[in-house]
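DATA SHEET
Item: assembly model
Revision: 1
Owner: S.N.
Input lines:
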Amino acid sequence: MRAAAWFVILGVWLVPSLAWPCGNAVHLEGDDAIKYLAKIEKLIDAGKYRQARAAMYHEVEYGDSASSRLAARDKDYRALLAIRDPRSKQRPTWTVKHFKARAATKAGQKDVRLRAWLAEAYAATGYPELAREILLELRERDLMPDAFAYVTLAAVTTGEARAAALTACKSRTKHEAICQVPPSKKPPARTKAVARSTRMRL
Amino acid sequence: MRTSIVRSRAPRAAWLAGLLVAAACRERAPAPYAPEHAAAAPTPAAPRADASELLATFECQRCHDVPGFAPAPEAKHCVACHQAIHAGTFAADAQTLAAWRPRIVSLRWVPTLAAADRLRRTWLREFLLAPHDVRPALVAEMPRLALSAAEAERLAAHLVPDDDPGAEPPPAAAEIARGEQLYRGMACGRCHRFSGAAVDDPGLHAAGRPSASPAGDAARGVGEDVATTIQRAVTVTGGEVAAVATVGPSAADAEAAWHLAPDLRFARARMTTVKLAAWIAAPRGAMPAQGIGADEARALAAFVAAAPLAPLARPPPVVRPAPLTRRVTWDEVEARVFRATCWHCHAAADYARGDGGPGNSGGFGFAARGLDLSSYSGIAAGSLDDDGEPRSVFAPGPDGTPRLIAHLLARHTEHAGQVVDGVRGMPLGLPPLPLHDIALVDAWIAQGRPR
């Protein structure tokens, strides 16, 4: 436990010093940790949550200066699993804090995907109005990143807007099952810290 | 450095880890057309301006040898990286390298800027602002960087310290004729195209292509001798080529020389006859020494500078192709376009040590655009505008053309020697995407970007 904490502290502290312009082509094919994360990403994207959860039952050692970025991405996927997997037993309250913190970083401030994930976290924890605020803005600016953003929008809207969001969801995935609107959640009793508007200028 | 995955997760540490973290080609063959710039009048001689900071800003050393600059680290050096992959020295297993090699056809050779002082300053300035295809055997071209006219002027003055004095007297007809005789006798066309000139011989040029692998040459029926003939000594007696002897049989150098040989059509715009003659007599960079004297070099320069040229056929203006009517899915556009071409420079920064390539995290003087073309959601999440605000890459322009399509079409216009104001052609410095591929992407956008 202590070793793990030190490892993460070091990972956060060490600023990446080596740029890697051809990075993805090289690293997706040559780096085990990135191959692992990319696999998880694909499984979640396909709605294969059980397989994703099974695959995530590993501890990843990000043994270089990219550790903080990859560890954060790893955590993103854990948060998304907690939000999207209907079999998930934990209440994903922590995901709101996670994505708010991620979206507040310098790299995350203009990251549309993090905004959409934060909206998913809001919707999953009983704050539909906050989710709606983010997603309507993204939709208005044609920046909805994927089908999950649309199904979340469907979950927090009604009528024609909901129907349009569901149609868009289905056209943006090969796995229509992910376009099942989840049942609405009630906010937890302790809401003050979360319920304030987090609108950011996009 | 590779990373590893260790079995058996430690869930108790996960929350702490997360909390702490939260706190913190297939590429294409070159198009045949190359536009030309007229030889501009020389600019008045000006003191050499030190533009080192511009060379650094635009990261010229990521591709070129730049006097006074250390090469970029291999991880940022496009050419060194590609060369390492082909040489088998890149840190990847042999199977991976073998899979990559056929895809890496661009940026394996690049001219050195140490020899840029042979150029006309005015030509270089115009070329920097609107680059065109000078070297027909190279897949990549000089990219159109975000240079202002003043910056191009300063860079040209830095790289060409002594500009040309003025107009030159036309060479004598006899000298031109002698130069043509030498050109043919020395088989300069084995390396050089001279498009529009009577001596231009595409077949000879194609047959003259050497390979770093003699076995490869043998397999193509070329033979090792061809790979080495441009490393030679020429004996000229009484104005006739008496003997051509092979020297310095470095197949790798020969391959570089062939790929870097410019189309001589542009030589008269690029260099004065005096500089051209000096260059032929004592070349630097990739061009091998020819072993000829100053007289022969002058005659060759006279011929190259004065040989009659047929006008180039200008390609018609590019027109946005009609989108396809059939259904187009993400898998198809990803495989044909995004993964084949765009991904290399517009990557996911998280997966690339924070540098998603110049098209994402910035580079070559470009600001970070945050554009990740490596995944469906990355593309849908858009790019950053000049103010750093997210915007859709699908947003229609004034004529209804989606932004992404406008950039792809603009590359065709750039390739034809013109620029589109406010729209940089993509893929940067590479041949334009075929129009049928652009139509494919256009159709995908028009159909609502289906997965």
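QC remark: Confidence is low (pLDDT under 50) at residues 4-19, 191-202 of chain A.
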